[in-house]
Design brief:
Elements: H1 2-19, H2 21-28, E1 31-32, E2 45-46, H3 49-68, H4 74-95, H5 100-117, E3 125-128, E4 132-135, H6 138-159, H7 165-180, H8 183-204, H9 211-231, H10 237-260, H11 273-281, H12 283-303, H13 308-322, H14 325-333, H15 337-343
Antiparallel strand pairs: 1-2, 3-4
Helix pairs in contact: 1-3, 1-8, 3-4, 3-8, 3-9, 4-5, 4-9, 6-9, 6-10, 7-8, 7-9, 7-12, 8-9, 10-12, 10-13, 11-12, 12-13
Length: 355
């Protein structure tokens, strides 16, 4: 009964923030202002989606930990303190730009906080469904997790450029995680999924954007829960790769192509995968295709992990069929800001300060 009550309170807290997002956003100074290029929405919009989700999730975590007494659940403590810390970094970045190197450094610091609070995250074993378990040196596993955390958070931040995309990914990843895991891990994942649904309803309408607070904090929390499920042997590595393939592959592509075009990796632009889909299919259809592929592939790999590698092959073909690297790179450089503003409609999220 208490668990149900706590879940309802968490959902209501997230709903309240979403309903009050505009006055709160103006008061906190986190309104996304249209610029007619990458930020093409029609009016100033609050970037409080992450605050909404993490407020509800924080209430649930604190309530659950308090109710269950000592000793506290190590995983939930790690998620609570590390994700909250990184969410604060993201919120500050929404208000005042933080240099990329500083953001990465803070991400690593809070990742190491999570490792200290829950050492079980550092089991040096790679669990494969198709190949069995592979043991690697502790330091190599530590480095691998660090690189994965930095890559995932920045990849999702880059993908947050159109309403509904990242919110939908949060929902499907959370519920897939709840399916494969059990205990408090499954409960926490399900809670993130439920709160993300509330945010998604408002985000699709263009009433609230995720903000860096969300793309950092919520993604980090899901990453820690995913790492814990893998460490426990509940989640094979190939399934994880399928879940995060599109945003991570797009980030890796830009790491290569932007320097080749003489651009900074952290300079925003219209060379992301959702932009490629928009050019090919239009705004609405591109969002439906992007979300549909991520949802279908994630569910398929979760329910049938033995076919994850097959699923991954199809996703590679899908992704690279649209990612015309050289051709699009040349075309993107010729885009005029005014021509772009005239072609799009106000469905693209303002939180498109991709890095």
């Amino acid at each position: 009964m208490y668990s149900q009550f706590l879940s309802i309170v968490a959902v209501l807290a997230t709903l309240l923030v979403c309903l009050s997002a505009e006055p709160l956003g103006r008061h906190m100074g986190v309104m996304a202002i249209p610029d007619g290029w990458r930020k093409t929405h029609s009016m100033a919009t609050p970037q409080l989606g992450g605050v909404a989700i993490l407020t509800g999730f924080g209430i649930w975590l604190v309530g659950y930990l308090a109710w269950n007494g000592a000793p506290p659940d190590q995983l939930l403590m790690a998620v609570l303190l590390s994700a909250a810390g990184l969410a604060v970094v993201g919120f500050i970045d929404d208000r005042h730009e933080i240099p990329p190197a500083s953001r990465i450094l803070m991400l690593l610091i809070f990742l190491y906080v999570a490792f200290a609070l829950d050492p079980e995250l550092l089991r040096p074993v790679l669990h494969w469904h198709s190949f069995g378990d592979g043991h690697i040196p502790q330091i190599a596993f530590f480095v691998l997790l660090s690189m994965a955390a930095v890559g995932l958070v920045n990849s999702v931040n880059m993908a947050d450029g159109q309403n509904g995309l990242v919110g939908s990914m949060f929902v499907v990843w959370s519920f897939c995680l709840a399916i494969v895991s059990d205990g408090t891990l499954a409960m926490a994942a399900g809670m993130v999924g439920a709160l993300s649904v509330v945010f998604l309803v408002f985000n699709i309408q263009g009433r609230i954007f995720l903000g860096d607070c969300g793309s950092y904090g919520v993604t980090f929390a899901l990453g820690i829960l995913t790492a814990a499920a893998h460490a426990r042997g509940e989640l094979p590595l190939e399934t994880v790769i399928v879940w995060f393939f599109i945003p991570v592959a797009d980030c890796l592509r830009l790491v290569v192509t932007r320097p080749l075009r003489g651009r900074s990796l952290f300079q925003g632009g219209r060379d992301h995968f959702h932009h490629l889909l928009q050019d090919a299919l239009g705004m609405r259809a591109s969002a439906a295709v992007y979300i549909g592929v991520v949802v279908a592939s994630s569910l398929f790999a979760t329910l049938l992990p033995g076919f994850s590698l097959v699923c991954l092959s199809f996703m590679c073909a899908f992704y690279f069929s649209f990612a015309h690297l050289t051709e699009f790179g040349q075309r993107a450089e010729r885009h005029d800001e005014h021509d772009f503003a005239a072609k799009v409609i106000p469905l693209q999220s303002a939180n498109d300060r991709e890095r």
